[in-house]
Structures are given as C-alpha cells and as structure tokens.
Amino acid sequence: MTDSPAKGRKAAPAAPQLRLDELLEGLQAQVAQVRATRDRVHTLLDAVLAIGSDLDLDVVLRQITESAVSVVDARYGALGVLGEEGRIKRFITVGVDEETIKEIGPYPEGHGILGLLIRHPEPLRLADLGRHPDSVGFPEGHPPMTTFLGAPVRVRDKVFGNLYLTDKRGGAEFDDEDEAVLRTLGAAAGVAIDNARLYEDTRRREQWLAASSELTRSLLSGTGTGQVLQQIAVTVRALSGADLVTLAVPFEGTEELVIEAADGVGAERVRGLVLPATTLAAKVYHSNERITSGALSDEPQAGGGSAAQIDLGPGFLLPLGGGEHVRGVLQVANLPGGTEFSEAVMTMIDGFADQAALALEIAEHRREAEHLLVLTDRDRIARDLHDLAIQRLFASGLTLNSVIGRMSDRPEVAERVQRVVDDLDDTIKTVRSTIYALHERDRSDGRGGLRSKLLAETDQATETLGFAPALRMTGLLDTDVPAEYAEQVLAVLRETLSNAARHARATAVDVTAETDGTRLHLRVADNGSGVDPAVTRRSGLDNLRRRATDLGGTFTVASNDPTGTVVEWTVPLRPRRTV
C-alpha cells in the first residue's frame, strides 16, 4: 500500500505531454498548410508569368489551359473560345492525347454543362458532373470524368471563353481555394489575351499597310491587271492565314462571274471556273454585302462554285470595292475543321479589299489617260502619213508614169519602171490601210464597224493575255456582214481569247477574220497547252458551237502545230438583196 502513492505521482505528467503532442501536430499541420498555400501561390505566380511571357495568341491560349490544369491539380482541362451566337468556335484541350481526340470526333459546340457556363458565366463546381440536370453525357470514346470546376475568362468585361477543369488528382473534390485560384488565373488570362490580341491587330495592320503600298506600286508601275489580281489573292491569304483565297470578276457579256485569281489548296482546280448567277459569290456581287459561313460547302449553291469543287469549311465572301463599282468578289476559306475567322480579320480584309479596289480604279484611269495619249499620237501619225507620205508616193508614181511614155524604144527599162509604179501603188494601198486602222482604233464609242470592234476586242485581250494578239482582216467586214452576225463573231472572239488567257497559257495568238461576201470565217490559233482531254467540262466550247449551228455554220477545235489550239468558226452569210 505504501507503493501506490508513489506510482500515482509518477503517472501524473502524461496529460501535459499528450497536450503538447497535439499542439505540435496541429502546428505541423498549419505549417504544412502554409507551405501548401505558399507552393500554390508560387504556382499561380509562375502560371501568371507563363501566360504573360508570349504575345502570340495561339501560344497564350495553350499556356492558359496548361496553367489552369497545373494550379488546381486537375487531370483534364480545356479552354472553350466563344464565337458568334454564343457557340464554341475553338476548343483547346490538355490531358487528352491525339488518338483519343480523333475517337471522340468533332469538338463540342456548347451544349450540356458547357452550355450552362456559357449562359451563366459564373464559376461552377460539381462533385459529379454526370448527375447535374443539364448534363448530356459523353460521346463514344470520351474518357470518364467526375469532378468539375469551370470559370469564365473575361477580356474587358466581355466573356472571351470558359475554362473547364475535371477530375482533381487524388480523388478529392475541387474546393473554395481552387475556385479562388482559378478566378485569379482567369483575370490574368484576360489581360494576357487582350495584350496578345492588340499585338496581333498591330502586326496585321502593319502587314495591311505594307501590302497596300506594294499593290499600289505594282498597279502604278504598269503591271497587268491579271497579275495584280493574283497578287491580291496571295496577299489576302497571307494576311488571313486562310487555306484558300479566290477572286472572281464579272465575265463580260454574261451574268456570270469567273475566278480570275486563286491561291492556296486546290487553286489550280478552281482558277478559271465560271460561277453561275445562283452561287454565293454572285449574291455578294449583286448585294454588295459580306456573307459568313461556318461550312461553305454545306451552303445551298445551285450550279456550284469553288465550294462545290473543293470541300471547304469556315469562310467568308466580300465584295472588292463598293457602291456601283464592285469589281469582283473575294472568297476566304479554311478547310473543314479549320478555325473560323475573327471579326478583326474580316474587318482587316474588308479594308484591304477597299484599298485594292481604289488602287485598281486609279490604275485604270491612268491607263485610260495613257491610251488617250497613244490615240492622239496615232491620229498625228495618220495625218502625217496622209499629208506627206502618200502625196509624195503619188507624185513619184505620176513622175515615173510620164517617164514610161518616153521609153518606147527601150521596152525592158519601161517594164522595170512599170513594176516600180505598181509597187508604189501597192505601197499607197498599204499606207491607206494603215491610216484606216489607226483611225479605227481611235473609235472608242462602240459605234464603229466590225473592223473597229474586232480591233477593240484584241486590244482589250492584251491586258489579260500579257501580250498583243496578231490580227488579220480580209474582205468587206463592215459592209458585207450584218449586225447580228457581227455580234456573234465578236462574242466568239471574246470567248476564245478568254480561254487562251485563262487556260492555254499561250505566249502568241493569231486572229484571222475574213469574208468574201458569202461566208464569215474566224480563226484563232494559239501556241498554248492545248485542250486537256481529261477536262470534261466544255460549257464555253458548247456555247461557241451552238452560236455556229444556230446560223447554219460550223465550229471546229483542233490541235495546232507544234503546240496549242486552233479554233475555226464559219457561218454562211445571207445573200444581199439587189434592186
């Protein structure tokens, strides 16, 4: 019994020791929590620095998504960038490999939980997103996901997109701290996105100004319109980053458009394609309004256009020029699955198109002024030839004629002099023909005869061909050919010269127009690539053949020697009435 009190006294310090251990454990837990908070703050700061270290928008968006996954310790993450009508136009993912992405299929547009965050742009936390009433489930091949944390990304008080994080590592749920950290990251992301967009706009504006200056220099330096149109297509593609850019211009004499220039994927397939009046391009041309589409090839286009030849995704069409001076239609498109074009890009291309149309108009006025100078010079040359050259040649012929009468005793000499006189007569006829041709070229009001109109057509084709076609005219084309026949032969010449420019890539074209009073014959020969037998579309040639058969004539297309094509169009003329 004497030992019991001693034993009781030794056991007394156990309670203070226990409390001390509890305090130490609590202190260690608080230190661990402080360290975790410190590490999270460091991680957040590193994330903010990372997303602000680049000015390329695509890189910034990728870094934002990766940083969001890192700061909340999620397994999967995505950033959905919003487009028009509140739909997701870009979807950047982290944690899902490319193989799985292909199995899942197209990216979401904004339904289910994703759409809920779009409609109500406030942070959203879910312990099990599959149990939420708005959940629509996952597509086949999609990895299973449970916990969810979403938050909007705002740029200048406007929602740019939403961050979606799922499956916190360790099986835990996302908590208040995760939400607060994601809010902070979202604010920093908005600033980084705004800076990247401003930088991108500035860079594009510089490119636009440089491209406009280069285009103006090319036009004013005398570069052909065809080359300038191609330069416009190349520049627009570089500015927009598009997969394909086409430029369609009016097909003279019809209600159709023709793709005169193209650059990008499938450009060779659509260059020279005739667009009927039912296509989107024709609608833009007549309405003078821009059209935007998320899938150009899915748009109803009776008769087809470039989007019917090549599978195209998002894109837009806009007029080249405005008001009553629309000079063509630009189509800017990406392939299916490509990104949609932002409003900033479309506005920039619209401004460049207006600048290009103005430069084309200025260059056209300059060419008209230069042409007027040429016409004035031709008129002076014609007067000089008539007043000086012909008069002198005629006087020389009369002098020689008087000499012939004095050479009766020398017949051989008289014969030689007579040949000279005949040569002078032929020379006078040639000079008179030249004077007539010079005056015919001066008639720009369209009221001249068939000869002047044939000259005008070949002159106009010089611009698209890059060289002047050779023209030979024989017979009384102005008097023997009725007006309706003249209209037909001009349309045939216009079409064949256009084909030589757009398809044949010829470097020489010979045009012969002749009549003997009973028939009208047109022959156009080039040294180009010839008619491709693989091309089954022959609408232009069918039109030419129909023009001939309607008048009881013939139309043939043959190979030229050694290369190229020979087109011959012949129709009989009605016999002239005699009184």
Please render the helix and strand layout as text.
Blueprint (H helix, E strand, L loop, with lengths): L3 H7 L3 H38 L5 H15 L2 E9 L5 E7 L3 H7 L7 H8 L4 E3 L21 E8 L2 E11 L7 H45 L4 H16 L3 E7 L6 E8 L2 H4 L3 E2 L4 H8 L3 E3 L12 H4 L5 E6 L7 E6 L9 H62 L6 H32 L7 H16 L4 E5 L2 H4 L2 H22 L4 E7 L3 E8 L12 H12 L3 E6 L5 E8 L7
Explain the overall architecture.
With 579 residues, the protein is an alpha+beta fold. The chain folds into four domains: 40-200, Beta-Lactamase (2-Layer Sandwich); 226-341, Beta-Lactamase; 358-442; 449-579, Histidine kinase-like ATPase, C-terminal domain (Heat Shock Protein 90, 2-Layer Sandwich). It is built from 16 helices and 16 strands. The protein has helices at 4-10, 14-51, 57-71, 98-104, 112-119, 176-220, 225-240, 267-270, 280-287, 306-309, 343-404, 411-442, 450-465, 477-480, 483-504, 539-550; strands at 74-82, 88-94, 124-126, 148-155, 158-168, 244-250, 257-264, 274-275, 291-293, 315-320, 328-333, 470-474, 509-515, 519-526, 554-559, 565-572. It has a six-stranded antiparallel sheet with strand order 8-7-6-11-10-9, sandwiched between helices. Strands 2-1-5-4-3 form a five-stranded antiparallel sheet, with helices on both faces. Strands 12-13-14-16-15 form a five-stranded mixed sheet. Helix 2 packs antiparallel against helix 3, helix 2 (14-51) packs parallel to helix 6 (176-220) and helix 11 (343-404) runs antiparallel to helix 12 (411-442). The N and C termini lie far apart (167 Å). The mean pLDDT is 78.
